[in-house]
């Protein structure tokens, strides 16, 4: 069996590892458009903020491929697919036959077609990140265009380096896909306290040497302009091969396209009308596809999305249907603008279908578990928002957390799996991460994993 994977990013590299773990003999070739080893794109904002070095983002060392008998063609761009002959052809003339093909081509940064946009730097790849950092060394002020998740992270990262930043956003409030208007307003106020000026409801008309010209004629000054205007799935390869493409490459519950020998996963794939832009769904899809490719019967049923903002001094989690109002669901909210705190629950049919938590909150673990499991919501709604006020025990306490509770959303790791690793000898977070991959996605579960490991050591009188 010859498996060819096009794309060596977070989805493609995970798939290769999952397949090799299941089948030590399958012939695997992976093509990566970027010349270097695969890296964790989710943590690029940490590099921008100076909290991580580029080499710390690595997913597979180059030696891993040789050790696992995987041929990695890095910097090798696939030009077209010959479905009849079952072979891919690269831009430099290589022909690679396949029995099964996986498209994990990811997405590309959207660059608005405005005058002077070539002066700006998109924030998408590790090369982009390094270009931004190099430019920031000689810049006096930065402008970030786009106030979605990535734009907020970029703005906070640059501000954390001491650079005054103006964040421009077309919509009426920041992160409008994940947040309601009030949460977006509070997020903007939180960022203002950290050195980021936010301008919403504005449109960039051009990029000039001295900044960004708005549609109304105003110039927003900045000698570094960063673009975070969203991404679009890379589907041209699939479309030119005659596969069904809508927003993404259309796949079924096995992650197969309309050609049964070709799969698609990650940001380029569209399942049941949805294109996912987060790492956890991509890794779930990689696991399902690996099962199917190696003869299993797994099915992908979609993902429940939890968005965590990875920006220093900003605590934010959003999940599910956050935009529903009192007309369509039971909405429980608390807002304290002076402290930058906003908490919102969206409950329908006695199930948690959405939540927003902005500001320091000890309710994140409990609410994430409720949302992920889809179980009944306790009657004490205030106790959910403020666990310390409730007489009921906190669900994310290591003592009372069930083994089935999911601790690492990105890698689908439960408390029971962490306990099993501890019992097998893992006495610290690094050991658990090596065995389960917990903490290696967005990294926001690190404190929870450390808490569970520490509690287990304490209970058994073992030194961590």
Q: What do you see in this structure?
A:
- The chain has 464 residues and is α/β, with parallel strands linked by helices.
- Helix content is 27%, strand content 25%.
- It is built from 13 helices and 27 strands.
- The longest helix is centred in the middle third of the chain and has 15 residues, at 279-293.
- Residues 391-395 have low confidence and may be disordered.
Task: Give a summary of the structure in a few sentences.
The chain has 464 residues and is an alpha/beta fold. The chain is built from 13 helices and 27 strands. 27% of the residues lie in helices and 25% in strands.
Query: What sort of overall outline do the alpha carbons produce when their principal axes are compared?
Result: globular
Strand order of the largest sheet: 3-2-1-7-19
Terminus-to-terminus distance:
44 Å
Low-pLDDT ranges: 391-395
Keywords:
single chain; 464 residues; alpha/beta; 5-stranded parallel sheet; 13 helices; 27% helix; 25% strand; globular
Write the layout of secondary structure elements.
Layout: E1 2-6, H1 10-22, E2 27-32, H2 44-48, H3 62-67, E3 70-74, E4 78-82, E5 87-90, E6 95-97, E7 100-103, E8 107-109, E9 121-122, H4 126-136, E10 142-145, H5 149-160, E11 165-169, H6 181-192, E12 196-200, E13 204-208, E14 211-214, E15 219-221, E16 224-227, E17 231-233, H7 236-240, E18 249-251, E19 262-264, E20 269-271, H8 279-293, E21 306-308, E22 316-320, E23 330-336, E24 341-348, E25 351-358, H9 364-373, H10 381-385, E26 406-408, E27 413-414, H11 415-423, H12 429-436, H13 446-460
Parallel strand pairs: 1-2, 1-7, 2-3, 7-19, 9-16, 10-11, 10-16, 11-12, 18-20
Antiparallel strand pairs: 4-5, 5-6, 8-17, 13-14, 14-15, 21-22, 22-25, 23-24, 24-25, 26-27
Helix pairs in contact: 1-8, 11-12, 11-13
């Amino acid at each position: 069996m010859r498996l060819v994977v096009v794309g060596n990013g977070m989805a493609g590299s995970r798939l290769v590892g999952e397949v090799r773990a299941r089948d030590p003999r399958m012939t695997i070739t992976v093509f990566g458009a970027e010349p270097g080893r695969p890296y964790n794109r989710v943590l690029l904002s940490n590099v921008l903020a100076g909290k991580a070095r580029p080499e710390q983002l690595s997913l597979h060392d180059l030696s891993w491929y040789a050790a696992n008998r995987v041929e990695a063609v890095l910097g090798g761009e696939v030009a077209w697919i010959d479905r009849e002959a079952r072979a891919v052809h690269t831009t430099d003339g290589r022909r690679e036959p396949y029995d099964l093909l996986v498209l994990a081509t990811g997405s590309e940064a959207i660059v608005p077609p405005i005058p002077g946009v070539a002066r700006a730097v998109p924030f998408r790849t590790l090369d982009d990140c390094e270009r931004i950092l190099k430019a920031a060394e000689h810049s006096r002020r930065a402008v970030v265009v786009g106030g979605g998740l990535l734009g907020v992270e970029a703005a906070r990262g640059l501000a954390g380096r001491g650079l005054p930043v103006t964040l421009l956003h077309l919509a009426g409030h920041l992160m409008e896909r994940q947040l309601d208007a009030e949460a977006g307003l509070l997020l903007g106020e939180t960022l203002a306290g950290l050195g980021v000026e936010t301008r919403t409801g504005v449109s960039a008309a051009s990029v000039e040497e001295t900044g960004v010209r708005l549609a109304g004629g105003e110039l927003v000054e900045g000698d570094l302009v960063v673009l975070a205007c969203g991404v679009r799935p890379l589907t041209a390869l699939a479309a030119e091969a005659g596969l069904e493409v809508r927003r993404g490459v259309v796949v079924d519950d096995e992650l197969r396209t309309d050609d049964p020998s070709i799969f698609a996963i990650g940001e380029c794939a569209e399942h049941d009308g949805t294109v996912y832009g987060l790492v956890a769904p991509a890794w779930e899809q990689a696991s399902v596809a690996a099962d199917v490719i190696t003869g299993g019967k797994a099915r992908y049923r979609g993902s429940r999305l939890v968005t965590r903002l990875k920006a220093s001094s900003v605590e934010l989690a959003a999940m599910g249907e956050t935009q529903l109002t009192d007309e369509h669901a039971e909405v429980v909210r608390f807002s304290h603008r002076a402290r930058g705190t906003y908490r919102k629950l969206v409950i329908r049919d006695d199930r948690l279908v959405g939540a927003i938590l902005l500001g320091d909150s000890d309710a994140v673990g409990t609410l994430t578990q409720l949302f992920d499991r889809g179980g009944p919501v306790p009657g004490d709604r205030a106790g959910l928002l403020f666990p310390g006020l409730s007489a009921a025990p906190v669900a994310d306490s290591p003592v009372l957390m069930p083994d089935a509770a999911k601790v690492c959303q990105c890698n689908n790791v439960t408390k029971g799996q962490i306990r099993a690793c501890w019992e097998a000898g893992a006495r610290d977070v690094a050991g658990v991460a090596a065995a389960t991959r917990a903490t290696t996605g967005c990294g926001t579960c690190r404190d929870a994993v450390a808490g569970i490991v520490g509690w287990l050591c304490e209970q058994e009188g073992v030194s961590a």
